[in-house]
Design a protein that fits this description.
The chain has 749 residues and is of the alpha/beta class. Among the domains are: 184 residues, Histidine kinase-like ATPase, C-terminal domain (Heat Shock Protein 90), CATH 3.30.565.10; 111 residues, Response regulator (Rossmann fold); 116 residues, Rossmann fold (3-Layer(aba) Sandwich), CATH 3.40.50. 50% of the residues lie in helices and 17% in strands. The strands form five sheets. It has a five-stranded antiparallel β-sheet. A five-stranded mixed β-sheet has the order 7-9-10-12-11. The chain has a five-stranded parallel β-sheet with strand order 15-14-16-17-18. α9 crosses α11. The protein is elongated and about 200 Å long. It starts with a helix and ends in a 6-residue tail after the last helix.
Length: 749
């Protein structure tokens, strides 16, 4: 860069005014170099022009003299044909000489013997013809600077006067003497023209030299400017303009240097950018760490406050132990400890496998005792999926959560009934357990509603351990805790927590269950819960209908939900009829249980209904072997007959259907162990039938096999995506059918 500074300074001092200080010297030297070649060229050109002009002039002169001789020839012929006067011929020759365009000195006529007969100049001596030329010829006259042109007179010109004795023979001669000298000024014209051309050339040359000199000065100034830019670390300093030839190497070297410097500068800038980026990243990381530190400090301070608050509420709970009942104190203490565990520890919610139906059967009396002191009736609702799956959850934790849910529901005003719903939601990406308490009355008090909506645990007091536990459990598990409360319409409190599930194989599915209940709403809910235990459920709400059904049909299990009124005579008759049924189970409200047991001997009534009770009774019933039912669906009667022949000796009960409508009717009435389903049906495709069957709780695990004549790989994937377990092709092969039945445990292989 230091060298560039020196070069810039030198260029500026030498070209301070845009033109070099020694430009006149350079121009003078240039002229000196150019003048000699120009003069030599001028002389050579002048000589060439002179020679050319001289040659052209002589040729032109000879042509003119030849033309003049021919003219004289014709004139002499004409004159000689008229008379024989030599004087007249001489006069004629004189006139021709006078009118000639060239410097003709003499024109003479000769006879065949080369004797002079007439001359244009009388005083002049005619040249002597040494030879008799046969054609036109030109010869030089010695020592006179002239030339002689001789032309023979044409033959036969004198024969027109054949009667006249002519001294001129047939063949005479015409001689023309002319001067070959050229005027001196003729040679000055090309010289002047060449001199003018030289002057013009020198002027253009000097202008070109001047322009070249100015271009050189401009290019050097441009080079100096770019050197200055390069010195200032400017990019894109390359010279793209066309410089003069002497500066070409310097331009190439400069551009190469500028390019390398640009590369170095770009590399340096990239490095600086990387360093700046690393600095920014570092600063961001530092800011993030600082933010995390601040957040951690805030969280620690908040947690410290929460822990202090939790200990303070624990102390208040112990101090006020005399103000609550012992059972309630026990529940509050356990809830308070569990809420602290969820809040301040890394809680593990996943535990051993747990069947909801059996778990509820073991603890339902304990849950009912929570509301016994308040005269509030607890009604339990279960979901069919509770029997099909087991959850991985701690039993004690689940019991505390359900206790807390019941205690929150008991806070409602003018409360008389709480409906507890336990539902395992097995559909979706993540199974979830939903615990819902629906209450009548006027809803929760205002302060309870506010506590439900707050996220600050510091607002929860020792008596709010139930709410604190439900909130903490939902937060830790990633679930939700919600409440809806309207004045005069009751309230709904719901806890939803994600759980891990596993399939639970039902050992014994009953074919037909009869359910009686005068409460239609409760009847519908009970039948829905029982749909996972039986293939067919019959409902009735009147005593007459119940009596008729018991007398006309045989049911696997009869469930009687006894009404408040004990119409003893009528019921005695019904109880008597039920003795013909394999199993009868009666349920009564807790306050009516003793009355029913005293009024009707033989009524084994219970105040606690749950699915586990029915499941236990179903397991105790005698098993009828080989009673699996299979449904074959095909709109072709021939195919149905062929399948019937193949299953004739199998320990199976065959049901057939030819349309989708028949399929849904049969599936409502019966519980099938396997369905062989045709893909192409008149009213609906087998794929759509499968999708709808999989929405029914009793058919979520039932094997469904596609029955079709052909299928492409893409179609097979569609069948499996719809929920089909396998595919068989028509016509059905016996070995394939046996393998299929053995696979799904319908027969032994």
């Amino acid at each position: 860069m230091h060298c560039g500074t020196i070069l810039v300074a030198t260029a500026k001092s030498h070209y301070s005014n845009g033109i070099p200080n020694d430009g006149n010297i350079i121009l003078t030297n240039t002229f000196k170099q150019l003048i000699a070649p120009w003069l030599l060229a001028l002389v050579l050109a002048w000589l060439l022009v002179v020679l050319w002009l001289n040659n052209e002039s002589r040729n032109q002169q000879l042509q003119q003299i030849q033309q003049l001789a021919i003219t004289v020839n014709y004139a002499v012929q004409a004159n000689l044909s008229a008379n024989n006067d030599h004087q007249q011929l001489a006069n004629q020759l004189t006139q021709i000489q006078a009118s000639a365009t060239r410097a003709v000195e003499q024109i003479a006529a000769y006879n065949a013997q080369r004797q002079l007969i007439a001359s244009s100049v009388a005083s002049a001596t005619a040249p002597v013809l040494g030879v008799a030329p046969k054609t036109y010829q030109v010869s030089a006259l010695a020592g006179k600077g002239t030339q002689l042109a001789v032309l023979p007179i044409s033959t036969g010109l004198a024969k027109a006067q054949s009667d006249i004795a002519s001294p001129i023979p047939d063949n005479g001669y015409i001689a023309v003497v002319f001067s070959t000298a050229q005027p001196w000024f003729i040679w000055l014209v090309p010289l002047a023209l060449l001199a003018a051309a030289m002057a013009i050339g020198l002027a253009f040359s000097s202008g070109a030299i001047r322009r070249e000199q100015l271009k050189l000065a401009t290019d050097i100034e441009l080079l100096a400017h770019n050197l200055q830019r390069l010195q200032n670390a400017r990019q894109d300093c390359q010279i793209s303009e066309r410089l003069v030839a002497p500066l070409k190497p310097l331009q190439l070297a400069f551009n190469e240097l500028a390019g390398k410097l640009d590369q170095h500068q770009q590399s340096a800038e990239q490095l600086i950018q990387q360093l700046n980026q690393r600095v920014r990243q570092h600063n961001s990381e530092v800011a993030g760490l600082e933010q995390q530190r601040n957040q951690l400090a805030t969280d620690q301070q908040l947690q410290r406050r929460q822990i202090c608050h939790w200990f303070a509420q624990s102390r208040l709970l112990w101090q006020r132990r005399d103000q609550v009942q012992p059972a309630q104190l026990q529940h509050l203490s356990k809830m308070h400890l569990l809420a602290g565990y969820y809040q301040f520890a890394d809680a593990d919610t996943q535990g051993p496998s747990l069947m909801l139906t059996h778990w509820l059967a073991e603890h339902i009396k304990e849950f009912n005792e929570v509301a016994a002191a308040t005269s509030v009736v607890l009604e339990w609702h279960e979901h069919p999926d509770n029997q099909a799956y087991a959850i991985k959850y701690y039993a004690d934790t689940l019991k505390s959560l359900l206790h807390a849910l019941i205690m929150v529901a008991l806070r409602g005003e003018d409360l008389s009934k709480i409906t507890i719903s336990i539902q395992l939601q097995s559909t979706g990406q993540q199974p979830a357990l939903r615990l819902t308490a629906a209450c009548n009355g006027n809803g929760l008090p205002g302060h309870c509603r506010e506590l439900m909506q707050t996220d600050d645990v510091l607002d929860l007091q020792w008596s709010d351990a139930d709410i604190a536990l439900l909130k903490a459990a939902a937060r830790v598990a990633g679930g939700s805790f919600t409440s809806q409360s309207l004045d005069g319409l009751g309230s709904i409190v719901e806890l939803t927590i994600p759980v891990q599930t596993e399939s639970a194989n039902l050992k014994n599915m009953q074919q037909h269950i009869l359910v009686f209940d005068v409460d239609d709403e409760r009847l519908q809910q009970r039948c829905f819960a029982l749909s996972g235990l039986a293939s067919q459920i019959t409902k009735c709400t009147t005593l007459s209908e119940l009596e008729h059904l018991i007398q006309s049909k045989k049911f696997d299990i009869v469930l009687l939900f006894l009404p408040p009124a004990t119409d003893s005579p009528h019921w005695q008759k019904i109880i008597h009829c039920t003795r013909q049924q394999p199993a009868v189970l009666s349920f009564a409200a807790a306050d009516m249980l003793s009355k029913w047991q005293s009024a009707l001997s033989g009524v084994q009534a219970s105040d606690d209904f749950c699915l586990a009770v029915v499941q236990t009774l179903s397991d105790q019933l005698p098993k009828e072997p080989n009673l699996q039912h299979i449904l074959v669906v095909d709109d072709n009667e021939t195919n149905l007959a062929f399948v019937q022949v193949l299953l004739k000796n199998k320990p199976l009960v065959l049901h057939t259907a030819t349309s989708a409508a028949q399929v849904f009717i049969l599936c409502e009435k019966h519980r099938f162990d396997m369905i062989l389903l045709d893909i192409q049906l008149p009213d609906m495709s087998g794929v759509e039938i499968t999708k709808q069957l999989r929405q029914m709780p009793q058919y979520r695990q039932t094997p469904i096999v596609a029955f079709t004549a052909h299928a492409m790989p893409a179609e097979v994937e569609t069948y499996r995506a719809a929920g089909m377990d396998d595919i068989v092709f028509k016509p059905l092969e016996p070995a394939r059918l046996d393998s299929l039945l053995a696979r799904f445990s319908l027969t032994s292989h």
